């Protein structure tokens, strides 16, 4: 089997509270640039490094499914919600690797802001034992790594993503420059709390679901309670 035939899987995790067009455009462009066979959107159960989400896991999963329906390359993966407890990316990568086999090309997609905190993630130096780490530009975010994490990234930094993917199933840090959409879930929740419209920042189907289920109506008074 030629290297080109090995399956290419993107893993894009987050709270997705809610999923928005910044996530979706990133997922689409990464999928195209790396010629991925599938891009898995993985909602966290309990994110270890931030406040609990406002929407429930089931609601965030449903919103992702509504958003992903339009793109056959997107796969919504509930493995972190099913696993429950704190969602550690290293455990997710181990599970995807076990399922996909040793030769599959795994690409962990992280925004630059998330990557800047990577030294706080569980077993972070081992992330590249299971996947390539694909760092995507985020408006206003600087790389900001220092110390061991900066050395770790510099040693693995590669400039030609397609050659890297042809050559190895994991191990590199790749940077991609994508279309910048300065959208955040925080902004969308704030707009909804102020009774302003977030339309065009996220798919209409997701916004309709939010409104029908009044998901962020109590965002000011009960964050993390639902
Ligand atoms: P919040 O505002 O609640 O912190 P968020 O919009 O940052 O949420 P997350 O679900 O926390 O969304 O992000 C998941 C991943 O998507 C992270 O790697 C993050 O860097 C990336 N990401 C979020 N928004 C964008 C965007 N507009 N462009 C590119 N990447 C993004």
Write out the CATH superfamily name: HUPs
In the CATH scheme, what's the topology name?
Rossmann fold
Number of helices: 10
Determine the N-to-C terminus distance.
49 Å
CATH-scheme architecture: 3-Layer(aba) Sandwich
* Ligand kinds: adenosine-5'-triphosphate
Task: List the strand order in the largest sheet.
Answer: 3-2-1-4-5-7-6
Largest sheet: 7 strands, parallel
Structural class of the helix and strand makeup? Answer: alpha/beta
Order of helices and strands: EHEHEHHEHHEHEHEHH
Radius of gyration: 17 Å
Question: Can you walk through the features of this model?
Answer:
The protein is α/β, with parallel strands linked by helices. The protein has one domain (3-186): 3-Layer(aba) Sandwich (Rossmann fold), CATH 3.40.50. 38% of the residues lie in helices and 15% in strands. The chain contains ten helices and seven strands. It has helices spanning 21-33, 57-68, 79-83, 89-100, 112-115, 127-130, 147-156, 161-167, 185-193, 204-213, and strands at residues 8-14, 38-43, 74-76, 105-111, 132-136, 157-158, 173-176. A seven-stranded parallel β-sheet has the order 3-2-1-4-5-7-6, with helices on both faces. Helix 1 (21-33) links the parallel strand 1 (8-14) and strand 2 (38-43). Helix 2 runs antiparallel to helix 10. The longest helix is centred in the N-terminal third of the chain and has 13 residues, at 21-33. Residues 221-226 have low confidence and may be disordered. The structure holds adenosine-5'-triphosphate. Adenosine-5'-triphosphate (ATP) is lined by residues 14-17, 22-23, 26, 110-111, 113-114, 136, 138, 181, 183-186. The site of adenosine-5'-triphosphate (ATP) has 18 residues, from helix 1, strand 4, helix 5 and helix 9.
